[in-house]
Design brief:
With 134 residues, the protein is an alpha+beta fold. Helices cover 43% and strands 16% of the residues. It has a 3-stranded antiparallel sheet with strand order 1-4-5. A two-stranded antiparallel ribbon has the order 2-3. The longest helix has 51 residues.
Length: 134
């Protein structure tokens, strides 16, 4: 009489093969996820920078006229003026970018340079709402 089924050795061999496949694929998937989060983060920063440029186009009278005097505004200001989505989040931390993150416009020659200081602002940014001005 033939027994149909797997022996213990065959099951252990299958588990060993699955373990090797897991050891190979998990680091690759983790690396891919981290790279994609970094790309999305850079995309979000570039989006904020583009919004800052648009804000500058709409507020020409506020732009600096002297190369030694940069203009600093906050992300909250861009939110309240409607230039940035209210719920823009940092894909690395899944928290909102802080409303007090510093954005800088600097005059250079005949043009302007736009900077986003992503390290500025407080880290307790759980609330994505538009900041209130009192």
């Amino acid at each position: 009489m033939k027994n149909k089924g797997f022996t213990l050795v065959e099951l252990l061999a299958i588990l060993g093969v699955l373990a090797v496949i897991t050891l190979i694929t998990v680091p690759i998937i983790d690396s891919t996820i981290k790279k994609n989060k970094e790309k999305l983060y850079n995309s979000q920063i570039n989006s904020i920078k583009a919004s800052l440029k648009t804000w500058g186009d709409d507020n020409i009278e506020s732009l600096p006229v002297d190369e030694n005097t940069p203009l600093n505004i906050t992300l909250g200001r861009l939110k309240s003026d409607g230039f940035v989505d209210i719920d823009i989040k940092n894909p690395k931390t899944k928290k909102c970018f802080p409303n007090n993150m510093i954005l800088t416009i600097k005059k250079t020659g005949n043009g302007y340079e736009y900077f986003v200081d992503a390290e500025s602002g407080d880290e307790r940014a759980d609330d994505c709402s538009i900041p209130t001005t009192e």
